[in-house]
Amino acid sequence: MADTPMTGRFFDTRAAYTMFVTATDEKPRVAERLGEQAELIEIQPPGLRVLDAGMGDATVLTHLMRRLHRSLPHIPWLVVAKEISIEDVRQALAKLPDRLTEHPETVFVITNMRFSEAPTLTPSNEGATPVWRDVALEGSTSLDFTDQIRELLPTLADDWRVKTSPISGNPVYERPAVLVLYRRDREFLLRSLIPKPGTEPTGFDLVIAAQSYRARTSVDKKVGGVLAPLARALVPGGRLVGVHSYGNDPGLEIVQGVWPGEHPFPHRRAEILAEARNRLGDGFALPNLSDEEALFSYRLHTMPSDETEHIGTSTLVAAFTAAAYVAQIDEPRLSAAMAGGTYLDATNRVIDRHGAVWFNDEMYVIVKR
Ligand SMILES: C[S@@+](CC[C@H](N)C(=O)[O-])C[C@H]1O[C@@H](n2cnc3c(N)ncnc32)[C@H](O)[C@@H]1O
Questions:
Q1: How far apart are CA 159 and CA 151, in angstroms?
Q2: Is the overall model pTM greater than 0.90, yes or no?
């Protein structure tokens, strides 16, 4: 997430994220959009290079890798993923063995470094030497890879230790760390894609910035702290795809039913891109997507069928929890709302009105000329 000062504890626990990922189809929908953008890229040897700036639990990333495998089954690729949370790293690594089995020509890199550092895998503080682990996985089955990755976890937990930044209050790494994974039986073929400490960084063909900053962060920080350093890591013709929540949906109606006047999504893509134009200059194209191209919706899975008159409490709780999560309501306000019962009525009214709960996301693209 963007480095921003926070007041109160942000509603951002593991459980809430995991629940949201499985309760909605947002992550596969985002991956679909990324797949469409990837098709517009002209890939050059030695292969495709992808940077996921804010991997989370890698649900988006692994869905995208499945799509990429279908369209580019024999193209080698390098995927660099930035993630500070060891819990997310653990979940992501659990999804990797299947990807390495289906697409053996994969170099997968995870780093805990910041937005400005991750693209080059180089810490800005010259005194800081990254802990760099280069792991060539033996064998060829997903179980071979699962076993070896599991053995790495205790060491990674140590590498991924965080402290709280005295300036922002956000978690920051104790030591910068890089984990490089690939299959030993493809090492020769992948050699030019495998990053090594201290070597000239490669640029990226596709940069993913999906839910990479908090919605209430200033435009200045969204662009200056997150998008601009990521865009500068693109190769000519490379595309950065940003995705954030948009509102104007039943999810926001639920939130505004409980917290009248709440406006959780203050910036539209036009504002973000105007600031990007200021900071990045003419070396980048900012395609003017229509709403039809930029907006897409996703839904909550657990919904009553049309015939059901009574909406169960668990459905109401799931809908409310997802809506509050998307709106990034902080924990004290969330607990206060859930201590009373009115949130259930507010949610019920919205579901009654629409018959379903869906959410809108908005995407934008930055292309390096
Ligand atoms: C590192 S970021 C995003 C990770 C990954 N790119 C993804 O989309 O799942 C993870 C954080 O983004 C926020 N987040 C994820 N999905 C969101 C959504 N649909 N709406 C609002 N915030 C979201 C949450 O605060 C979460 O902890």
A1: 14
A2: yes
